[in-house]
Specification:
Layout: H1 10-13, H2 21-32, H3 35-46, E1 51-55, H4 61-69, E2 74-79, H5 82-92, E3 97-100, E4 112-117, E5 123-127, E6 130-135, H6 139-151, E7 153-164, E8 174-177, E9 180-190, E10 196-207, E11 210-222, H7 224-233, E12 236-241, E13 247-252
Parallel strand pairs: 1-2, 1-4, 2-3, 4-7, 5-7
Antiparallel strand pairs: 5-6, 6-11, 7-13, 8-9, 9-10, 10-11, 12-13
Amino acid sequence: MIVLHGNRKEKQLMNKYDDIAQYYDLLMESGYYDYQKAAQSIDSILKGRKKLLEIGVGTGLLAEKLLELDSSYEITGIDFSTAMLDRSKARLGNRAKVVEGNVLSMDLQEDFDGVYSQGGPINFNRVGNDYHLNMLPNFEDSVKMLNNIARHLVDGGLLVLNIQGEKTEVDGDRDIGNGIVYAQQKHLCFLENQEMYFWEKDYIFKKEGEIVARDRHKFLMIYGQLLEDTMKAAGFKLKQATPDDLYMVYQKAI
């Protein structure tokens, strides 16, 4: 068993977005993501699967676009950030169920046809022609997270994870509106002879040259055989990377 950065305090294990929540929508809608295109891609993958769980629902931007495409979706969104959830509740109203919690300990007492994540605690990064899985900074907790996600999926259910590439990186400062300028800094830490590495990312928001909000998040990346073995151990089989290169799709074993 591999244990890395094993601080057991739950709030220190999760990357929270409370400090930057008030600027999050400005950033996301400034071209950082195309939520309409993302929703169309997820809709094409999950068509016919109505009961969905969004991991890291954030402010509800993606769930809103999905419901605009098909109002019959039964979406439950979970997030660890109270500030983000306040915004998602205001956006989604009674069209979706929003739950405060985290994927390590969630016990929603129901199964879902599909689980999807745009970012949150789990997604993929494209590195050249390869794909690296972006997870919690503790490997043991990441395994627990995958097992818990699988537990909430019906047999044959789909796990749909966003693929982030160079297009989602910000080069220098970006004016995102309302006088707010966004910048990010990324720091890598490679582990010798292991198919994993850490990276940290600073989210920086400035107004008139002064920093008004800043968050640093830490992640663990795994790839290669370790990635294959980890997903298989959690009961997931790779189905496809979508043709638009937006999502990696796994299926829970039947």
